[in-house]
Structures are given as structure tokens and as C-alpha cells.
TrEMBL record:
Residues 39-162 form the Polysaccharide biosynthesis domain. This is Protein PBDC1. Pfam families: PBDC1. Gene3D superfamilies: yst0336 like domain. It comes from the Eukaryota. It comes from Geotrypetes seraphini. One of its GO terms (cellular component) is cytoplasm.
Length: 175
């Protein structure tokens, strides 16, 4: 089952007014909510939609040409300076989620507060950049972690394989 399929089904059960109300609620401070399952479902749905759009984008446009933010150069430079030894083609979840990793990521992420919109929103990240978003190949990360890793994957050529798979095969010419 693809990541977010349950969310898609759950969102379909909401009426238009409920979806609009939930979307408006997302603009309110998070501390006003406990663990409201409707809000969690909307956030999961937004993360899934973001992932779907991004994958379609790298499938149809050469990733080396993409700009994901206005500050891609800064994100890339800071990521390489702080995480230059991190393996990005296949990300080890411990590189994002262990206590040691969180201590290293926290200052990196916080430097983009006010610089990158929604820098700390939850976003889906593919672990193996040669594969699509699936339950086994997806981890929840912050938006700035997603940008940092995906900008590096794009610039360093790791996402080119996805783009090349989407290109039509060259036609043979008979001579």
C-alpha cells in the first residue's frame, strides 16, 4: 500500500465544509490541538500530496535544473558543510531520527526559520532515491530536511535515474 492511501480514503469521507474547516484549522497554532485524528489526517494528506507532486516533477523535468526554493544555494552549501559525509542516495533513518542526529539537525533546521516557508512542516522523504514513495521507502522528515537532501540529490545527479526512467526511449533510425 502506498504511503497516504489510508489518508486519501479518510479525506474522501469528509464533506466539503469539513475539508474547508480543517484546512482553516491548519493555520492555527498547533498547541491548540491535542492529537486530533482529523487534523493528523489532513497533515498526512498534505504531506502525501507534496510527495506526489515532487515525484511527478522529478520524473518529468531534469532534476539538475530544478530549484525547490529561493535559497537552494544556501541550503545546499549549509547541508554539505554540516552533513557532507551523509549518504544521500539511500538515507539511513538513523541519520535523521537518532538522538545524536537530532542534535546535529536541530541547529541546521533552525537557521532556516523565517528564511524558508514552512521549514518545520512534516514532509515525506524517500529513503532510496531510485524508488517511488512507498510505505517501506518513506520516512517523515521536516520540510527543510527534505529540501536539503533532495536539493543535494538533484545537484549531485542521484535523482536523474528517476527522470531518465520517465523519458521516452530514443527512436531508432533506419539507414
Amino acid at each position: 500500500m502506498a504511503a497516504g492511501e489510508n489518508s486519501v480514503a479518510g479525506l474522501g469521507s469528509l464533506g466539503l465544509s469539513e475539508v474547508v474547516a480543517a484546512a482553516q484549522a491548519l493555520s492555527l497554532p498547533a498547541d491548540l490541538y491535542g492529537n486530533d485524528p482529523n487534523i493528523e489526517m489532513i497533515w498526512a494528506m498534505k504531506a502525501y500530496q507534496h510527495a506526489e507532486v515532487y515525484f511527478n516533477l522529478i520524473s518529468s523535468v531534469d532534476p539538475k535544473l530544478l530549484r525547490l526554493t529561493k535559497v537552494d544555494d544556501l541550503i545546499y552549501t549549509e547541508f554539505k558543510a554540516n552533513f557532507g559525509d551523509m549518504k544521500i542516495d539511500v538515507v539511513d533513518p538513523e541519520e535523521l531520527k537518532s538522538e545524536q542526529a537530532k542534535e546535529k539537525w536541530r541547529p541546521f533546521c533552525m537557521q532556516f526559520d523565517g528564511v524558508v516557508e514552512d521549514f518545520n512542516y512534516g514532509t515525506l522523504l524517500r529513503l532510496d532515491c531510485t524508488r517511488d514513495y512507498t510505505e517501506e521507502n518513506t520516512i517523515f522528515a521536516t520540510r527543510i530536511q527534505f529540501y536539503a537532501i533532495e536539493i543535494a540529490r538533484n545537484r549531485d545527479g542521484y535523482n536523474s535515474q528517476i527522470f531518465n526512467l520517465g523519458k521516452p526511449a530514443a527512436k531508432e533510425t533506419s539507414g
